[in-house]
Model the fold of this input.
Amino acid sequence: MGLLGLAIVSISMSVAYIARDVPTSDFMLSTFQAGQSFYSEGAYDQAIDKYRSVGEERSVLLDDSEIIVVVGEVEATVKDAAIYQVGNSYFKMFEEATQAAEGLRDKDEKSRRLAQAEEYLEEAVSFFSRVEEQSDSDELRVLAQGRIMTCLYSARRFEDVIREGREFVERFPSHPYVVEALYNIGWSYYELKDYDKSIGAFTELTQSFESGFQVSRALFQIGECYYDQKRYAEAIPHYQALVDQADISELTEQDVQRMQFEKVAGLVDETEYELTAKAQIRIGDSHSQLGDFDKAEDAYHTVTNVFSQERRLVEKAYQSLADMYFSSRLLTRCVGAYREAIDNATSKTFQARMQFQLAQRYTEASREWGEDLYDDAIREFNVYLKAYGEVASSAGYSLANTYYEIGQVHYVKAERFAAQGAQDQAMDAYGAALSSYSTQLEDHPEAAFDMAARFNAALCRQMIGGDTQDEAIEGFSQIIAEDPDGPYAISSQFQLARIQLGQGQHDEAATTYSQIIAATSDSNHLDVAHFELGLVRAQAKDLTQAAEHLLQVRQGAPQYSLSRLEAARSFVSLADFDQALSVLRQGMDVAQSDSEKAQYWYLTGKAHVGKQDYSNAIDAFSNTLRVSSDPLLQEIARYDRGTSYTRLEMYAEAVEDLKLLTASENERIRGAVQRMLGMAYLRLNDQQEALRSYSELAATSQNLSERADYLILIVELYMELEQYDEAVSTGRQILALDLGDDKGGREYSVREQTHFLIAESLHSSGNYEDAVSAYIEGLSRYPDSFYSPDMSYALGTLYFQMDRLDEAADTLTDFVARFGDSPNALYGLYYLGYAHFSLRDFDKSRDVFADLSERFPDSEVAAEAMMRVAESAFNLSEFDLVIGVYKDVLTAYPDAPFLDEATYNMAWAHYEAQNEEEFISGLRRLLNGFPKSEFAPDARFTLGDHYFNKEQYQEALNEYQLVLRDHGDSKIAGEVPEVLKNVREIIAYGEYEEAIAIFSVALELDKEDKKAEALEKFREVVPMFVNLMEKYPGTEVQVGALSNLGVCYEFLNQWQDAVQTYDKVIELFEAQEASQEAYQFAKGHRDWIVTSRL
Done:
């Protein structure tokens, strides 16, 4: 809302000094001026004291009406102005108290502050009311009333604002402040969601005033009223009127700068330029809501092109464009909007926000649509880290936020894998999530994310299991200890309880050390106890306690240097890298040997790596290499320096370090280095150099085993590059070497690995026949070794893929029998079951699928396997088994997508087992539980057939009619009309026979010359024939009823009715709906009546 400003008093006058205790005009002015000074400094309580001493002064010796000051361009007496300023001061105190209360967590203190704020507001209103009632200045009274409305609006007393505003408009209809009054009224109605009255007030404003910010804002708010009511088509013209009124195309750069200056100066809350841009965005939003995407896109692009200086609104336009496409699941176009924003933006912070939001969209799409776009999200978050890391905080999405989001994405991936039974992938994803959370906590700690990250990191450790559960215990315990009343404490307690229940272990050593510490006062003993207890705690992954005890070792103690070194090691593991560096600085100067100093430098490097300060990490590792004489530490330091170079994308330097490590005796380092070296060349966009390097190493190596290792790396590199022919060729070079099958400390020999890689390459290249041969050769040479399970499984599934089902069945049978613990055992059973099923070996498919569902009941294919068990058993006529399995499916897998099929098939199993009642109940369960199922039409039709065969024709008719009503577009519905016709004929004929019986009695009575009784029977049967005629049109019964009805009318001498009835029979004959015999009967009787009776 616009507020009327206050001008600083400007006055120049002279007064005479009368007496020491009599106030003078100078005193009044100086005191007022002092109040103004306190007011401008924000010392409102002191300002109030000064103002009140002026406003409440009473002296018969001073004519204060002659002491005039200026307030808001309005001249008023100093006393009126002082009272007015008391109101303003209280209002300022209300604003400050309200703002302070908003940030408080203590409910009692917050309530107290809000109550105090309310008191300030009441005081403000009270003093403004005094001015409005007592001031001799009409203009000041107007200002006071305006301030009253401002107070009421700030207190959200909207009904009072409306009342005061209307009173003002009625009292001062031509006053310039009427625009403010109407503006406040419109806003108050809007806040009350009384949109029609809000529209009325804003419309009155636009009709009463031609220009000004309030007029523009009123047009916008009229649009908002319609928009909030989802009346988008009605909103658009009002937004457009604002855009047209602004005539942005005619604005000069100076005009725009002037508007921006007014905002900076505090004269307006937002410029008309900004408001026009917002209106243009709203036009786009409205078209978007109406589904007119082309017009919406044009509107948004108008903002991005015409209002390019308004970065915030341009960003909003792109966001709205992306939102529009996202809400319609047009992800490609949504992503395109963000890409366009990034490409067109000149501000890196703007680009950063768009990039972050783009990544979030992939996460949202995965979560909301069930898509698997998590890798896309991670990729885009990593782009954000690499491209916008230096502006992350200013962009509003800090690095802490980003790493936390990446952790969340990995965690959701892990949960999805776990739910699918893919445990290996789940563990990898949990590990990746943990890495991201740890990076956030270690390198980018931030209060807003730390606790959530710590909780989720601990949760990941728990999910991973094994040794990491101790770290999970520590993490959960810390959360409980540090924030017992926080949102994650109770969850941590639960998780902690579950882990403890599973472990049941006690740290006896820690208990012993604690007892020592509690019992002794000897400093030396305490140093040893704390140091060794710290080591025990560190081994137990209780790193906080470890550091606490290690840091209690006194300076000067023999263990001091090592205690700081081990404490730092604990802090590095805890991701508290700043604390680690602080502790390392404490101990560095007292390190007792070069060996210890080398360890200090190495840990310093690791701490810097944790902070992602790779430049300082490289310096620290270089110092380690300079000081250390330990070959192992040198090797590790060189390795970490090489990896740090790669983090800084200094690949040339990385290559120099990594090349020196290719001859390492440590197989883990050597293997990793060889791969990293190849990847470094790849990062240098030199794949050929990577291949050349490995080829050269292989060619020059004098050791056949070493040469084979290099060639293996070349094969893997070719496979990564999808150059499978080269991979196969290189693999055959390895096999040509005079290598034995020595495993060299590994789980497999190089020759075995090579056979597997050749087969995999042939398989991936689509060369299936050769792949089959390669797998067979590998298995014949290595029937029970490391790669045997993988080759056996791959061969079996390849046979299945090639539709060589007998061979697939034999191979997979052997696979599941010999390698039942393989990670591929689940899908080995799955494909084996389908191989038998396709071969119609139903007894075997039944048993295999049953085995799968029993061994892997929580897998993604368990329910499907049970369905195949039932189908196999059905084909074997084992109907009791079929029924039991389908019941298990319905009970164990309530969310499976084929529950309707299970219900339907179970019903037919009951039919085959001659359980007629259960058969019908089963069909009813399907129709009630799954009315939209693909099986519903057949089920309904089958019910109709059932009742038809039972001669329950009305029930059959109902069921057939429901097929047409509910499943008219189904295939079975095409058979219904003919069936319905037959059923109706049968039902109609049954009712027709009842009428004919009475009709026959009437004829017999007439023959017996019992005329009166015969006429009674004819009258009785007439409505029955009429009902049959109307009830069963298009049937033979209709024709018979009409013919006999005509006869009844003849006996009743109702000749005209008889003629009309016979005419209907003739019409039916002409329409080919009555027989020749019926026609001749009707024609003969009609002609006789016309000739002899009419």
User: Anything to note?
Assistant: The first helix runs from residue 25 to 40.
